[in-house]
């Protein structure tokens, strides 16, 4: 009879400590620390044992293991074998199934609050020894495999889940910024560049004046590659703010910046951002593997991929230049397809249209 009573006591002790373990594991440590700094007495009390981390779990599991083993031995000596098995199975079911794990209970919080001072004192004494023990175990049984967690996709999913939390205290805009910052480095220059067909080029011999200024302002761009002879022969960059602020007359050659920088279309946006920072340039000419000019990319294009929003300066007229280029390409494709299907009519002479300089 005495063995049975002690078995019940040991089983109850194992269940209580298992409930405390689940409660402490579910308590958000950072939230406890935040509340404790604000003067919350309960949070300050619970944070003391929780702050020991693994040492608290080792202590709780040790007590659970000893108490459960003792209850099994005592039940096997005081009860028939079949009844002892039923009692042990009942203890396991209560401890690992019935006691909730998905949320905190009032009883669990009350128990954790009452036991916190005792655990804090015990851990203060035992923490150095437990740390040595865990270090010895990790040293002789190192983990050699990766869990597969905490890839970029895992962090992005975590941020998305944070946005859906009812008690979320991070603004949605900051979460979106973090999400885009995680993935922008995987994108290539070709994904963010302004295609050549949309770029407005300026002839090096163009005269500086109100007409040129108005044409460039209407384009929606603020930086323009300057060519000499052929359009692929870029000799400089013209900045619209320089054109607006100047009081000189003359040629574009006199006002352009002759320094040019190039990036390959297969460079990552992270590499390109580093290049912008190092060179202190705001525009790169983009070339392909055949050294052909395929477009330009500005620092604003890279930042747009980080923040996930379009950056509009005082000279922009278009919401998305790449969308404009895609729409124009689709229109040209449909027109070309229509020309193939329609019969060809004799051409009639038409007056020659004046050449338009972009």
Q: How much helix, percentage-wise, in residues?
A: 55-70%
How large, in whole angstroms, is the Cα Rg?
Answer: 36 Å
The name CATH uses for the topology of the largest domain is CBS-domain
* Poorly predicted sequence stretches spanning 5 or more consecutive residues: 314-319, 344-358
Question: What features would you describe in this structure?
Answer:
By secondary structure, the chain is of the alpha/beta class. It has two domains: 2-140, no CATH class; 189-337, CBS-domain, CATH 3.10.580. Helix content is 58%, strand content 11%. The protein is built from 14 helices and nine strands. The protein has helices at residues 2-26, 29-37, 41-50, 54-78, 81-98, 106-140, 152-164, 172-183, 189-192, 210-219, 240-245, 269-279, 299-307, 321-341; strands at 194-195, 202-203, 207-208, 223-228, 230-239, 250-251, 262-264, 283-287, 293-298. Strands 1-9-8-7 form a four-stranded mixed beta sheet. A three-stranded mixed beta sheet has the order 2-4-5. It has a two-stranded antiparallel sheet with strand order 3-6. Helix 1 (2-26) runs parallel beside helix 5 (81-98). It is rod-shaped and about 110 Å long. The model is unreliable at 314-319 and 344-358 (pLDDT under 50).
